[in-house]
Amino acid sequence: MATPLPRYRFTVAEYERMGEAGILGEDDRVELLAGEIIEMSPTGPVHAYSLALLTNHVAAWVGETALLSVQSPIRLDDASEPQPDLAVLRQRNYRAALPGPADVLLVIEVADSSRDYDRATKLPRYAAAGIPESWLADLVAGVLERHSEPRDGLYRQIAIGRPGDTLASTVLPALAIPVSVALGQSG
Predict the structure, then answer these.
(1) How far apart are alpha carbons 19 and 152 in whole angstroms?
(2) Lower Cβ count inside 10 Å, N or C end of the chain?
(3) Phi, psi (deg, nearest 5) at residue 143
(4) Are strands 133-138 and 104-111 parallel, antiparallel or unpaired?
(5) Binned average pLDDT, 10 residues per bin, the chain of 187 residues
(6) Three-state SS at 16
(7) What's the rounded Cα separation, in Å, for the pair 156 and 76?
(8) Angle, alpha carbons 63-125-112 (nearest 5°)
């Protein structure tokens, strides 16, 4: 039986230096998760349209109460800097540093080819970091999942909505998302 070779794990600082040195460019679709540089799935038309509808819907609700971050990095810890499709952030100036877990009210991932990775890898990282709520728009199964109550690296509550349903945030109760909007089925 072969012994697996050890993997080198990058820190956020090393990852960011790769960007500064031009090893990783702005157009590279990668993110750092648990010290590994992960290539992100290409964005297809259904994903792009769903994200556009979700962005418009959440932005209309957010207004001046919070900041809406679209496909931008958040820093979970010294080894993870994922780029959720959407993140609702506390209102403050982020020019000096990326938002951290205490700044993130909720994240939303839109997923088709990446749904297993998002559900099994990214959402547990968000939970371990203490992000209060993570949503997954599963374009393949045609459902919107709201994951809340993070504890021990897992979300303890999961609500699932189907087209025709509307799910409200547990963190921001005034924010309600029609499932058809999240799945790109309206408009």
Answers:
(1) 32
(2) N
(3) -135, 160
(4) parallel
(5) 80 88 85 84 86 92 89 94 95 94 96 88 95 96 96 95 95 92 84
(6) helix
(7) 19
(8) 70
